[in-house]
Design goal:
The complex is a heterodimer. Chain A has helices at about 10-20, 40-45, 50-60, 65-75, 80-95, 95-105, 120-130. Chain A is mostly helical. Chain B is α/β, with parallel strands linked by helices. Chain B has one domain: FAD/NAD(P)-binding domain (3-Layer(bba) Sandwich). In chain B, about 25% of the residues lie in helices and about 15% in strands. Chain B is built from 14 helices and 16 strands. Chain B has helices at about 5, 30-40, 75-80, 125, 140-150, 175-190, 230, 235-240, 285-295, 370-380, 390, 395-405, 445-465, 530-545, and strands at about 20-25, 45-50, 90, 195, 245, 250, 265, 275-285, 320-330, 345, 360-365, 405-415, 425-430, 435-440, 470-475, 510-515. In chain B, strands 1, 2, 5, 6, 7, 8 and 16 form a 7-stranded mixed beta sheet that branches. Chain B has a 6-stranded antiparallel beta sheet with strand order 4-10-11-12-9-15, with helices on both faces. The longest helix of chain B has 20 residues, at about 445-465. Mean pLDDT of chain B is about 95; it is low at about 5-15. The chains are: A mainly alpha, B alpha/beta. The interface between A and B is large, with 55 and 74 residues.
Chain lengths: ~140, ~550
């Protein structure tokens, strides 16, 4: 059975935790600013449903007024739980078109390849051929 | 045969009538056998525990392509949680990964196409370790070329590190900025490298479309540019009359009173047991699955497992222990772009050298580096000791800024010599979704392999620096393997020390064959699919040639 969709309260908690992991800096927005607790979260959990139940359990458990301490506690003492939280936050963050634009990532888009008649590595390959002793013969 | 199985035996005619050849597994080797046998007029039935995988099932053409690795298209069945997979238990230094479905492991593979070295077949004679194969490189030369054509391989023959071979049907895929950066480093060091051969079409060819460089090869090609049996072999096999039964989990290979295999007992997806009769049974379920099935088929005649008079079924498991060295460069390499096969490879350190403290060697291959999730993941792994502050918060963005689009990885694939304590056995407690015992893996990395990896990683760091890397990230032994499982039903001339003969027929059961990677005597350092498929073709054609002398059940 699939996990229920996160509630508004759970999303609010996630937004706070996410900003501990991904804060504004280096010209990049914080996680909550691009909506990691909104539609991007739903897309992330649909892509990896296995994350939903453990994430919701964490969001129910997390204190609403001590996000920083809670995330650091997970990182230090509960690596499996921290992996769930960080995978969701990072995965959702990089689904954001705004973030992708900022880092120059078009996604895994098609880009037809061109096979050159004379690849520009041929001179290097010639040197491989010249210096190689040949394969090791077997009886 | 068990009386309850006898009652479920298929009728003498109709779609479930006796097959000339029953194949267990529809992947690399099973699909080769099915297409060749059906084309020669044999009545072929293949049982596959998984389902068809359709191009539309892949997530590769969606923005969520990187998230496909988390679960649905994770190569590790434990993470994937697909009911068609069977559990893999045990405490192993390296745990096998695989895919169960039509096409088997070739659903999720990087399509790297690499024949073995000539020396790989004779390591006992040359290096005094392990065992020689009963066959030579030359006995596979023709088949290497033919299966490469069937899979629309793109590559450049004439690598001086390999014996002469047929030209590949397509020119190599461009090595890209990633490959050029790595090649320049190897050129500066005077080390061997060669443009990668891949079962990825650089132009429209056969059943494949031209590669579109999505870089999602491992999670499924949405362009149908990567070879997989559902494109390259099964259409031909089915058109020739072969029958492929999906959702069929084989539980036992039963025997008649004279010790010949009579077919396979299998459970369908509703748990109903069937008996499919056959004159000849061919196991092609990979080195873990086939060993598991033989052990599941223990009987009064074979109390230690079917075809196991040697005691070697399940033993000598080899996996190609694997590490990576990632070069981070100043220049943009557009390294999220594919294909995610091998841009270039190196056999510089693949052979034994008297000055090293290990025997045999490793193959290296350069791959792209994926999207930003990969970049962050690898950066965090490399800097895991730096502490929370260095990796998260405002500093989170450093990983993508430094690594994303600027990195390539040298994969270091070590030869794994056979050791009898590395093995597949049946789990006493855990079962699959059909109630059959899981495969338990016992595997320890050898000291020889550990030294080999350490040496090669150190050289790969030098290669990364020679390529102009501004920083280098080194990963330890991958705890989940790379899908190369070999050696658990080795071939050989002596029934006391091997499970199948040189034609991959069981020494113990005259109408039982094993044609997957389990028959490898040693593993070499090459990606094994080219050899698995070439050997399957060799064995299948011998089976066809010798059909009149094949013993079959009455």
């Amino acid at each position: 059975m699939s996990a229920p969709s996160p509630t508004a309260a759970q999303r609010s908690v996630l937004a706070g935790l996410a900003d501990v992991l991904i804060a504004e800096g280096c010209g990049m927005p914080a996680a909550s600013r691009v909506g990691v607790a909104g539609e991007l979260l739903d897309r992330c959990l649909e892509a990896a449903p296995v994350l939903a139940a453990p994430l919701l359990a964490l969001l129910d458990e997390a204190p609403s007024d001590a996000a920083d301490a809670y995330v650091r506690c997970l990182a230090a003492d509960r690596p499996d739980d921290f992996a769930v939280l960080s995978t969701v936050v990072v995965g959702a963050y990089y689904l954001s078109p705004q973030v992708r634009d900022l880092i120059g990532y078009p996604g895994q888009e098609p880009s037809p390849l061109t096979v050159a008649a004379e690849p520009d590595y041929l001179d290097m390959l010639e040197r491989v051929y010249e210096r190689h002793p040949g394969y090791r013969e077997a009886p | 045969m068990r009386p309850d199985l006898e009652r479920q035996a298929a009728p003498a005619s109709g779609e479930n009538s006796v097959a000339d050849v029953l194949i267990v597994g529809s992947g690399a080797s099973g699909s080769v056998a099915a297409a060749r046998l059906a084309g020669a007029g044999f009545r072929v039935i293949c049982l596959e525990q998984g389902d068809w995988v359709h191009t539309a099932d892949y997530m590769s053409a969606t923005p969520e392509a990187e998230l496909a690795w988390v679960q649905r298209w994770n190569p590790d069945p434990v993470a994937r949680r697909n009911p068609a997979d069977y559990p893999l238990t045990g405490e192993a230094d390296v745990r096998p990964v695989m895919y169960n479905g039509v096409g088997g492991g070739l659903v999720q593979w990087a399509a790297m196409w690499q024949p073995l070295l000539a020396s790989d077949f004779k390591v006992r004679s040359l290096d005094g370790v392990a065992d020689d194969w009963p066959i030579t490189w030359a006995e596979l030369a023709d088949q290497y070329g033919r299966v490469a054509r069937d899979l629309s391989v793109s590559g450049l023959a004439d690598d001086p590190a390999l014996p002469e071979m047929a030209a590949y049907p397509n020119p190599p895929v461009p090595i890209g900025k990633v490959g050029m950066a790595a090649a320049r480093g190897m050129d500066r060091l005077g080390w061997h490298w060669w443009p990668g051969a891949n079962a990825i079409a650089s132009r429209r060819h056969g059943a494949l479309q031209a590669c579109q460089r999505r870089g999602t090869c491992m999670t499924g090609c949405p362009e149908n540019a990567k070879a997989t049996p559902s494109l390259t072999h099964w259409p031909r096999a089915l058109a020739a009359g072969a029958r492929l039964v999906t959702g069929a989990r084989v539980a036992e290979i039963p025997l008649d009173d004279r010790g010949r295999a009579i077919g396979a007992a299998y459970l369908d997806s509703d748990g109903v047991e069937h008996l499919q009769r056959a004159r000849v049974v061919v196991l092609a379920a990979n080195a873990v699955g086939t060993a598991r099935l033989l052990l599941l088929s223990a009987s009064a005649r074979f109390p230690d497992g079917l075809a196991n008079s040697s005691g070697l079924v399940g033993r000598r498991l080899m996996q190609h222990p694997y590490r990576t060295v990632t070069a981070v460069c100043e220049e943009s390499l557009e390294s999220w772009q594919g294909p995610w096969g091998q841009n270039i490879y190196s056999l510089q350190f693949a052979e034994t050298h008297p000055d090293r403290d290990f025997v045999r060697g490793a193959k290296w291959m350069v791959m792209p580096h994926g999207g930003p999730m990969f970049a962050v993941g690898e950066y965090h792994d490399a800097h895991r000791l730096a502490g929370f502050e260095a990796l998260w918060g405002e500093n989170f963005h450093r990983a993508a800024a430094e690594v994303f689009g600027h990195a390539f990885a040298w994969g270091i694939q070590a030869e794994d010599l056979p050791e009898e304590h590395n093995r597949v056995i049946l789990d006493d407690e855990v079962c699959d979704s059909s109630g059959l015992p899981a495969a338990r893996i016992e595997y320890r990395l050898s000291e020889n392999a550990r030294r080999m990896l350490d040496f090669n990683v150190a050289r790969a760091v030098e290669a990364a620096e020679a390529a102009g890397a501004t920083s280098v990230m080194v990963r330890g032994l991958w705890p989940t393997g790379i899908g190369h499982v070999l050696g658990t039903t080795r071939m050989g001339d002596d029934p006391a020390t091997s499970v199948v003969d040189r034609w991959c027929r069981s020494h113990d059961v005259p109408n039982l064959y094993v044609i997957d990677g389990g028959v490898f005597v040693t593993g070499g350092s090459a990606n094994p699919t080219a050899t698995i498929m070439a050997n399957a073709l060799r064995v299948t054609e011998h089976m066809i040639d010798e059909r009149s002398s094949q013993e079959v059940p009455l």
